[in-house]
Specification:
two-stranded parallel sheet; alpha/beta; 372 residues
């Protein structure tokens, strides 16, 4: 029986679609927004083909053409009808708004709350047996320390993205007559073998802002940032939980095929990365002086503050450590996953891959100069 995916042209949704082709024999029905003169089918097949090629899975290209099917629809406006999608066994809800700013609150709620309600209704109409909801481990909000695989608290969130994802989780958890799974990836990065990513958000969004800031300062003030270190309002000992996209997809699909009756699953890395290490790697590859870490905004000068103003979304994740429990996840997988080592040198190639896509010329020179 078929499985249905929203957000299959996105980063995580696309990887899950490929993993379903790998792990199952099901046909994959994908809700795809019409856009311009490109048909939903063309968009879907082009997006999945690009992902398969980027991840070294060209063996899946024939299956993409024969087993993935696009139906036009939009989670915020008009989803397809039951007659258009037929009967499906499972629904994967991956589509979401990643915005966070106050001025976009209505759009964020329309996607992440009302969109989830609409997809839940579609799942009921299609008589789906299960509903797999891709959320985020950072729905934990301002909580630090050990974060259990449970419903969590609505007490406090850093931004509208976290808040609306929390509300959407509540909607899914309350859905009747379906097995529901709430899948919580942490910070998703490129493929563990090819390093490639089809996204420019998360870690990559921070790197993009840093490159843009460096280039703007260079145009105005020359080599200042090569001579003077930037201060960043951050704690170098904070742990960043980074996980490759292929691991997210592999574990998500394996969980869906398991006998687990749990609801919440942290698809996270048991070996988190020190923020200070990641920052120093990025700054080195950009030929910048190693950053200094500030504990108060009073320690920042005008240039430091200008960078801080560029990264309001990321600022809340640069202090405080969350340790995500994986008991439900590991139990469903049938093993304790040791995680991926993304400390120091192991993380460098991921950062370098993305910086090359931005045209940062000094990356290769810096990698040669850095002992490995």
């Amino acid at each position: 029986m078929a499985q249905l995916i929203t957000g299959a042209t996105g980063f995580v949704g696309g990887a899950i679609a490929l993993e379903l082709l790998e792990q199952t024999h099901a046909d994959i029905v994908c809700v795809v927004r019409p856009r311009g003169t490109t048909t939903p089918t063309e968009r879907l097949h082009r997006s999945l083909t690009e992902a398969a090629e980027a991840y070294g899975r060209i063996d899946l290209l024939p299956d993409i053409l024969t087993r993935t099917h696009a139906v036009p629809g939009d989670i915020t406006e008009s989803l397809p009808s039951r007659s258009e999608i037929g009967r499906v066994d499972a629904v994967w809800h991956c589509a979401a708004s990643l915005r966070f700013e106050d001025q976009h609150v209505e759009d964020i709620e329309r996607h992440n709350i009302h969109g989830t309600q609409a997809v839940l209704k579609l799942a009921r109409d299609a008589q789906a047996n299960s509903f797999n909801h891709v959320s985020t481990a950072y729905v934990a909000g301002t909580a630090n320390g050990e974060i259990p695989e449970s419903a969590g608290s609505a007490a406090s969130h850093h931004n509208h993205y976290e808040r609306t994802k929390f509300v959407s989780e509540q909607l899914v958890a309350a859905a009747p007559n379906m097995q529901v799974r709430i899948l919580r990836p942490s910070i998703v990065i490129g493929h563990s073998e090819t390093l490639a990513a089809t996204s420019s958000t998360g870690m990559y969004g921070f790197l993009r802002e840093l490159v843009t800031f460096r280039d703007e300062v260079s145009r105005l003030l020359g080599d200042l940032l090569a001579l003077r270190p930037l201060r960043i309002l951050a704690d170098a000992d904070t742990r960043l939980n980074l996980i490759p996209v292929n691991e997210v997809a592999r574990q998500a699909v394996a969980i869906s095929r398991s006998s687990s009756t749990a609801t919440y699953f942290h698809i996270t890395n048991p070996r988190p990365t020190f923020l200070g290490d990641a920052m120093r790697l990025a700054f080195n590859l950009l030929s910048l002086r190693q950053p200094l870490f500030a504990t108060s905004i009073r320690e920042l000068n005008a240039i430091d503050q200008a960078l801080s103003d560029r990264i309001p979304f990321y600022g809340s994740y640069l202090t405080g450590t969350k340790l995500f429990a994986r008991r439900n996840c590991d139990a469903a997988l049938g093993t304790h996953w040791p995680g991926v080592d993304l400390s120091s040198d192991a993380l460098q190639p991921y950062i370098a891959w993305y910086l090359r896509t931005l045209g940062v010329k000094e990356v290769d020179e810096c990698m040669v100069a850095t002992p490995r």
